[in-house]
Design brief:
Chain lengths: 113, 114
């Protein structure tokens, strides 16, 4: 059974702090790892990672994948109140044309002004 | 662009009632998915359809049925609703022909079973 574990489950920090969110996985037939941000409604896509060691960056957010150790991290620098959300990690598995995502439980991030 | 549209947004049912959740996407995506999200559980896959005419069970299929009506539409049916099915349901779609594409999600249906 495919398994994705995120830590911590919950994190409260002050505005301006830097945070690191963790995602480890044990899956069969790995294709890619995705990070999503979820505020009130639908998860919105942040990053997709397929290769080890290549950092993806978007503004204050960055992410990297280690396929040998089976984990990924999501970093957010200079946090703002708008970063408060649930951050979801998901791993895509399966043969091409029959893929599916397995999600972790998410990390609830709260930024205090 | 509408993206992925789910209806209804909210619904309250009594135990034993039946209900169909509708999902439609206008992005010409091949694959469509139904998830449920419960507190502390993340998103769990109920059923998915890799292409028109095919459906497969996910992690938590019991108590649900699906229909891939055409390429655009993928419905989820609860035949006899139970309180354990109280949840937020998300539909998603994915263009599998192009690697590196994410799944796109609808805004969800909040379902309460009394």
């Amino acid at each position: 059974e495919d398994k994705v574990v995120q830590s911590p489950l919950s994190l409260v920090v002050h505005e301006g702090d830097t945070v690191t969110l963790n995602c480890s996985y044990e899956v069969t037939n790995f294709r890619s790892l995705l990070w999503y941000k979820q505020e009130k409604k639908a998860p919105t896509f942040l990053f997709m990672l397929t290769s080890s060691g290549i950092e993806k960056k978007s503004g204050r957010l960055s992410s990297i994948l280690d396929k040998k150790e089976l984990f990924s991290i999501l970093n957010i620098t200079a946090t703002q109140t708008g970063d408060s959300a649930i951050y979801l990690c998901a791993v895509r598995t399966g043969n091409f044309g029959n893929e599916k995502l397995t999600f972790g439980t998410g990390t609830r991030l709260t930024i205090i002004p | 662009n509408a993206g992925v549209t789910q209806t209804p947004k909210f619904q309250v049912l009594k135990t034993g009632q039946s209900m169909t959740l509708q999902c439609a996407q206008d992005m010409n995506h091949n694959s469509m998915y139904w998830y449920r999200q419960d507190p502390g559980m993340g998103l769990r896959l109920i059923y998915y359809s890799a292409s028109e005419g095919t459906t497969d069970k996910g992690e938590v299929p019991n108590g649900y049925n699906v229909s891939r009506l055409n390429k655009r539409e993928f419905s989820l049916r609860l035949e006899s609703a139970a309180p354990s099915q109280t949840s937020v349901y998300f539909c998603a779609s994915y263009r599998r022909a192009v690697e590196g594409q994410p799944q796109h999600f609808g805004d969800g249906t909040r379902l309460s079973i009394l």
